[in-house]
Amino acid sequence: MDNLEKSKSTPPAVADVLIIGAGPAGLTAALYAARAGRKVTVLEQLGPGGQAATTWRVDNYPGVPQVNGADLMARLHDQVRGFGVHFVSGQALGLEPGELHTVRTTEGFLSAHAVIIATGATPRRLGIPGELELRGRGVSYCATCDGAFFKGQPLAVIGGGNTALEEAEFLLRFASKIYLVHRRTEFRADRCVQGILQHPQVEVVTPYTPREIHGSETVSGLLVEERGGQACRELDVKGVFIFVGLTPQTEAFREVLTLDPAGYIVTTTDFATSVPGVFAAGDCRVNYSKQIVVAAGEGAVAAVVAERYLEKKHVK
Ligand code: NAP
Predict the structure, then answer these.
(1) Distances 46 to 26, 73, 92, 100 between C-alpha atoms, Å
(2) pLDDT tier, 12 (very low <50, low <70, confident <90, very high otherwise)
(3) How many angstroms separate the alpha carbon of residue 162 from the centre of ligand 1?
(4) Does the pLDDT of residue 21 top 90, yes or no?
(5) Average pLDDT over every residue of 201-211
(6) CB of 77 within 8 A of CB of 297?
(7) How far is Cα 161 from Cα 123, in angstroms, rounded to an integer?
(8) How close is the Cα of 156 to the center of ligand 1, in Å?
(9) Catalytic site residue from 59, 71, 145, 190
(10) How does pLDDT run across 85-109, given as a tens digit for each residue?
(11) Beta-carbon count within 10 A of 232 CB
(12) Which residues line ligand 1 (CB under 6 A)?
């Protein structure tokens, strides 16, 4: 049986460890739990890899220099499948804690002795007119997915963090010009990626906030307003790429787990949530740094801590 066949076979009625999410945190947790001999089910919403799989180039994953995010995640996914982990496609809708925890999903119920939540975070929306209407028709949250549609076209990139500057660098291979729109004059992105601000094809538009995305069939322009409301500019762009941070995917657990005001899951230092036997790892929890290597490391530790929990409960 190859890895794919192994991972497609029927999941156990009750898993030892149920992992929700198949990004770097969830997949690494699955790797560690399966290698500890546990029956592991992973609930994945879309494809494996999470946000990391939409990153065109990862420069800071130890030992794997300059790797495409989708390739890195595909390798990890394949590695995990080799250990007989069961993958179930679906979305978590709710958690019912108990002696056995039950997760309500779009595809039915899944039960497990321990649960590791690794649902990550999704790109935050700007919430301005035109954003929703023109999504997929010039408005994008993923340079890797959509950049190639804009060969020779002027684009706007919104945001001042690492994602905005790194993805702008990728988009330069297609775009005729990039307006980098940020609401402050200082950029929060790491200094090592700020070289893009001096690129001759980049016009830095600060401190400006996007107000409206214009277009009927496709994007035809972006209205931006200077901080303080002194001036507005209409940028002549065919695409608007939005990278203004992340929203944790924790809605399904809001009723049961302690979340912080921004919606991130609050955990102890060993990744225990407010419910015994339920752990959280990666971008969905309150942590200091949103990095692929951090998420992977947290997934590994969460699996080790979950194993200790199962041993204490004499789950064989
Ligand atoms: P981020 O660091 O939170 O930056 C979001 C940017 O969007 C900020 O510059 C923010 O402005 C701006 N923004 C937020 N809401 C806005 C609004 N309503 N209108 C206009 N601008 C708005 O988010 P991120 O870049 O997606 O990164 C998320 C996390 O992943 C970070 O911890 C980051 O370091 C990490 N990351 C790391 C790497 C790497 O190490 N290679 C790569 C990508 C991401 P202000 O600055 O004014 O708040």
Answers:
(1) 13, 13, 12, 26
(2) confident
(3) 6
(4) yes
(5) 98
(6) no
(7) 12
(8) 16
(9) 145
(10) 999 999 999 999 999 999 999 999 9
(11) 12
(12) 60, 126, 159-164, 166, 182-184, 188, 209, 243-246, 290-291
